[in-house]
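Hi everyone,

Forwarding the result from last night's run.
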Amino acid sequence: MNEPVYERVQSHLGRLKLSQMAVCLDGVAEQAAKHEWTYLDFLDQLLDAEVSARTERDVAMKTKLAHFPFTKTLDQFEFGFQPSISERQIQELATLRFIAHGENVLLLGPPGVGKTHLAIALGVAAIQQAVSVYFTTMVDLLDVIHRDAKEDRLAHRLDTLCRPKLLIIDEMGYFTLDRMAAQFLFQLISRRYLKGSIILTSNKSYGDWGDIFADQILATAILDRLLHVSTTLNIRGQSYRLREKRKAGVFTELNEPAKEV
């Protein structure tokens, strides 16, 4: 190999920040000579190595910024355990057309039926297609809202939560929102309306959302914007997390307390 040319190529790759091409240059050049590749084939292999490495780094960075509590994929979801979920409908959502159109997805159902798994899996699928994602639980969001209110940073927080193309809000309904938090959520949903998608999970049916917000009018206004262009999945079934305990007889369903006669 012509050493001056080789050194110049490596220098150019370094200046252009094509680090993976620089790493792969020797190996790809050997393969090209061995198999008598055309110049175009040689360049194609080098570029493919660079693009693959950059995609991998981008996915890793976006996954870190998403703040997932854990990583799950759709391949890991046991659709057979939750027959109320349409696998075909989930695969349609995984095409991410709902994000392209600024639509929302709402996953409703009791604890343990797979709402968070599906929400994160769709988030992971979005990241693999270079879509920015941010995950938060409603409890964590409430803590942030009240802390930011004391520091006069609510406007900044609102801007931050409007940046990702997909925002996932998990576990809506376990705690009542005070008026400040409810108004913040209304502003957030209004700002993202038709611009950025939201995946929201809740253990409450829509008819119970007035109890979450302690304000029926505000609850109606929030639902109006969330549901206008959206997909709702009502998941019915037993808790996936407790199924092994149930099989072993360690756990039985909680019964309603006996009524006094």
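The radius of gyration is 25 Å.

Cheers,
N.
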